[in-house]
Amino acid sequence: MPIRDLSTHPAAYVSVGELANYWRVSRKQIYKQIDAGTLAAIRLGPRLFRIRTVVARDFEESARMCPGDLHQPPASRVG
Question: 77 pLDDT exceeds 70?
Fold first, then answer.
C-alpha cells in the first residue's frame, strides 16, 4: 500500500521499499539508517525488514529541518 502521509497511514508497519518511495530515496539509504541504528526495524529475514509506522514518523520529525538550517554557522567549540 503506497504511503500518502505517515501521520494518517493506516498500516502499523511499512516496508523498506514503501518508505524509500515515500521519502524519495533509495532502499540502500533506508538500510543504511537501519544498520546505523538510527531507524529501528524488525528483521523478518536476511534482507526483509518492517518499520513501525510510528517509528518512521518520529524519525521523519526528528530529521526535519527548518528554513535556514543549512545556512547556520556551526556552533563554536570552547576548548
Answer: no
The closest of 20, 24, 2 to 11, measured between CA atoms, is 2
3-state DSSP assignment of residue 45 = strand
Closest CA to 44 of 58, 32, 54, 34: 34
Q: Which grid coordinates are listed for 33?
A: 539508517
Residue type, 62: S
Say if CB 19 and CB 53 are below 8 A apart.
no
pTM: 0.77
Which residue type occupies 65? M
57: region left, alpha or beta (phi > 0 left; psi from -120 to 50 alpha): alpha
Where helices occur in 1-79 by DSSP H, the ranges are 16-23, 27-36, 53-63
Q: How many CA atoms lie within 13 A of 27 on its CB side?
A: 9
